[in-house]
Amino acid sequence: MGSSLWTVCVILVSLASAALCATPRRPVDVPFGRNYVPTWAFDHIKYLNGGSEIQLLLDKYTGTGFQTKGSYLFGHFSMNIRMVPGDSAGTVTAFYLSSQNSEHDEIDFEFLGNRTGQPYILQTNVFTGGKGDREQRIYLWFDPTKGYHRYSVLWNMYQIVFLVDNIPIRVFKNNKDLGVKFPFDQPMKVYNSLWNADDWATRGGLEKTDWSKAPFIAAYKGFHVDGCEASVNAKFCDTQGKRWWDQPQYRDLDADQWRRLKWVRHKYTIYNYCTDRKRYPQLSPECRRNGDI
Description:
Its main location: secreted. With 293 residues, the protein is of the alpha+beta class.
């Protein structure tokens, strides 16, 4: 092999390695029962393809949900979801992490249903020490009812990143130096659910659930969990430098990820608590620093 061709090969290998390091590991899809158990209304969960796919059903009697068997401090969590099609007004399809006590931490994906022809709204929120009210809302750049899309959370000591098909849509940084609490010592379970919230979910509660369209069905697969499993009584999970999500390249977004996040902000964001001066005349510290991006 000539020296010039060898140099090209080395460069290509180096670029490929860098690309692998720049994004989270490819999630390994596993059956539902590996990491999850039903939480409530077991008869409203339908298992397909040997448990590799499930459907959640919502009717006028009840919704349903499931949760991880274990609790986790830090890691990467993702789910492939196909949203309720058609007229889904009043429904909420959720994928979130939450701890257990009153001053709980929580990381939320909530998909707010729509009237037929209107876009779904994705609402994200972060609770720390029992305090939330950090809502952001976006439209998606695709129809989430037409097929599966992957929704992910990367959580370490430095940041929480919300991703849609591996595109960052929100970053919540660790701003403890500003007095802003950050989730680091309360293990969280991962929850998924489909439920009725027509008192607020669609146009602030103006659009009610049309039960003649029931049952409403959301489909899930993937069931990926890669985290530091901990007791609910644990105060800290010592992963520093030991797990892939703690490595330097995951402590901030890279240039391309920041570009993609700004693209989402510019084209698809419809609400950001950081810019809501009527609701928050006094800007939150994390918003003053970087706009909670």
